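Dear colleague,

As promised, here are the two records you asked about, laid out in our usual form so they can be pasted straight into your sheet.

NAME FIELD: protein one
SEQUENCE, THEN STRUCTURE:
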Amino acid sequence: MRHEIRPLWPSPPRIAGPALTIRTGKHDNLMFHASIYLARPGDVIVVEAGDDEMAVAGGNVCAIAQNNGVAGLVVDGVIRDVVESREHGFPVFGRGVSPIPAKRVGDGGMNVQIRCGGVVVNPGDVVVADEEGIVVIPRARAEEVLEKAQAKVAADSKLSLDDWMRRHRSAVEAALKTKGYRL
């Protein structure tokens, strides 16, 4: 996702889980409120908010989501009561904070294709988020991506920093050579 969607408190735990997707209308949060009761343990609630003026979520609904096993919340919009979410250890990612709560008016949808942070998110896609960013993996490619990630971690763990630095320098020198430069 685009860098504008970021952790709303420092150093949140990494989360990963299937997306429960929500779309809200302008100044609305009804579908988000419904989602905290329908989410399955491990779900990441991902919200395409109708605006960034009014908060989709606050501390109490985030606490309910956490108590129901939700892994975290990703909002292309704003929330409020960030201190409460931080104190409870509930990971929240979004554009920012607003003290003004949205209303439960019902414009929106649940478990529908959304766009969050410039990325299309479908229900069940795998969402991985931490302080460095948010990645969405299409459900159909989840196993393939996991296998590649595990292989990369295994390969990287066999390299010492000195080995990595030698390989890195060699790769930089080779790339520079193709452009007519040298170190």
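NAME FIELD: protein two
SEQUENCE, THEN STRUCTURE:
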Amino acid sequence: MTTTTNTSASGSFSENNVIVVLGAQWGDEGKGKLVDIIGQEAEVCARFAGGNNAGHTIVVNGNKYHFHLLPSGLTNPKCISIIGSGVVVHLPAFFKEIEALESQGLSVSDRLFLSDRAHLVFDFHQIVDGLKEVELGKSSIGTTKRGIGPAYSNKASRSGLRVHHLFNSEDFATKFRKLVENRRKRYGFFEYDVEQEIERYKNYAERLKPYVIDTITFMHRSLASQKRILIEGANALMLDLDFGTYPFVTSSSTTIGGVLTGLGIPPQSIGKIIGVVKAYTTRVGGGPFPTELHDKIGEHFQQVGKEWGVTTGRKRRCGWLDLVMMKYSAMINGYNSLNLTKLDILSGLNEVKIAIDYEVDGVPLESFPADLGVLSKVTVTYETLPGWSEDISTCRSFDDLPLNARNYINLIETRLNVPVEWIGVGPGREDMIVKKINKI
């Protein structure tokens, strides 16, 4: 996702000091654009989960900045960026991303901090990630092979290494050798210079010291002083380890619950939750996709929407907007409002469809199924609406949109009982309509 920054945000924090932006589908919804806009007013921008397995690009004054692991609040020179304890950190990627930003004149000095409780991703985790995908064969999940899953697996089994372990080199070396040994027992011998890696991480420890703090204390001090805090989600609800389409999910909590556990803040501190939803649906990798299209409309979404990943370059599967899935997403995350992105990609279609119900063998489903065997054989009921031919990229208010585009949005709001507050009509940050929220 590429967004262009050239103006300032207006009034995002007027009623809430803590705003959370979460992906509402299978990821790649365009969260970075809204985070970029709101982030221009934020004093703190924090990530709570995931690793360098997601990515987006922000353009500021003609300069392109690529983000994978670091919070995109770094584009605001007045904002402190936090990587919370729920994030898993690959230090080579961490420093590479810092170097790339600083080579473009974007200094992170005294503005970027990392939790001492965050777990570490090592190169052998990436090796194991690939070995596991091979082992699964046709049942492979389609991971980014960034080592995220194996790192979270070590965390869950209480054998992982955290940032603070780096600062006791002898203890780190002992634990690291044991960690690699256990992985080799599980997957067989793989080439990996353990002693060289230990030496490399000794050097990383010295470089890392200025960035490492107790982020829990920092976040609570920021809350106490009523700082404007933006919390940036990675991945999305349908990729959540518990609530997503398991096992075709990521290995962390991507929900509002993950915000609390990944940053160590209480639920009452959250002021507003914004769900980001694409005007159609996309998915990367395997797993059921009820509204997937294999026709010219699917190709239209993929080509016109430029649906391929920043991190992997993989093409995304495309389909119609699915409100059955979105109801489930909204129920879990409790969105106060939605950011509907890429509405402009629907321009030029004679008709547009929205999934409103599932049924199996003629029996309607009352909820989103946990069993992927059930999900893979649902029959989807669609509501079909007239499309619009107008170019909407210059629209700057809801009333500027064609009637049929407004009807599309109204149907989403009515079905979900959640207002659409932000409407993306193009790639630039100025290509965003802020719609007045009315009670639904």
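A couple of things worth noting about protein two: Residues 169-187 form the longest helix (19 residues). The longest strand covers residues 351-360.

Best,
R.
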